[in-house]
Amino acid sequence: MMARERLKKLILEEINGILPRLIELSDWMAMHPELGSEEYEASRRLSEELERHGFKVERGILNMPTAFRASYSGVGPSPKIAFMAEYDALPEIGHGCGHNIIGTAAIGAGIALRRVLDEVSGTVFVYGTPAEEGRGPSAGAKRRMAEAGLFNDLDTAMMIHPTSGVTRVNEGFLAVTGITVEFRGRAAHAAAFPHLGVNALNAAVLMYMAVHANRQQLRRDANAVIHGVIKEGGVASNIIPDRAVLQFGVRSSDDSYIPELVEMVKNCARGAALATGCEVHIEVKPGLKSNVRNEPLERLLYRVFRELGEEVEPPEITARRIPMASTDFSDVTHVVPGIHSMVSIAPEGVALHTREFAEATMTERGHKAIEIGAKAMALAALELLLSPKLLKEVKEAHRRAIAKLS
Ligand SMILES: [Zn+2]
Ligand SMILES: [Zn+2]
Hints:
Radius of gyration: 23 Å
Order of helices and strands: HHEEEHEHEEEHEEHEHEHHEHHH
CATH superfamily of the largest domain: Zn peptidases
CATH topology of the largest domain: Aminopeptidase
Number of domains: 2
Largest sheet: 6 strands, mixed
Bound molecules: zinc ion
CATH class of the largest domain: Alpha Beta
Helix content: 40-55%
Number of helices: 12
């Protein structure tokens, strides 16, 4: 008992000590936002900070230039705990998803946990996972890392994400798949020679409305969402458009429903192509899964957040919330037990993906979230290192949840 309290104190002291540096890094990122797959400077600064604290860092893993894996092993190699860092920003609105807080809380947790590993067996990893918002060649970085087997021998993976409203230990996330549709027609003078044209915009509009007509018949129990835009629909009104491009996303809390939704969207595209005489090219992007929740981990984080004085929603209340968004962390939770806590930085109603939310990351409360997030993850990890019984419970809950899926 005494040893546990002393180790907890070490972790808290370490985070208090590096907090000014973490805040400086987070604010720097907020003021210098980098888009997904181009987060060179953020990735460099975060990974160098880990190096300065004794971590071994491998950069550019899986051919993703802004990804990294940092690790530190203590007196023994196991258990293996990973903290996930994100650092990509959004076009126009900068860090409107607060990934500057995710990145700095993750390295803070890693550096703090490293402090106890000279006495306690275990390895701590900090994964630098770029392009969470899906932009560029490194999009879906965590899914790619999961598929490549990087997480296979981990015992637990954790991350925090800033949010508005109340702090929650976890949340449900939707599976998502992106679909791009390109219609090819034939250009012609829109007034003089319309009979020589094949109108790709007409195909796009028909397809858009056909998808819309299917919305009412979606499964309500599966939290299905379909969103789409017409990206390109012609260049001038006096030319029959020869090219139109649409982008859709289909989401559901039921992974097995996604192929059906994708097929429906494809049929709408094929129907519109047939009706207008256009050619159609459909590209289905590799999707993300819905997340696997872990009750023992949720209870652990709930206890730790409360110990830190953070007001937090009881996990059983959170479990009744409707899943709203998607993350590539969900794919990690299909391989290892994982938890994605949502730490409040703004009052209810401040939406994520806004400039207002980006500003909130630089407020006192935003800075507090880095501290609370890093401390909660490091303390929860310490509990897992010190209690084989708890770790076994976490892993068994994961095994049961995965078995239920198949
Ligand atoms: Zn986001
Ligand atoms: Zn985000």
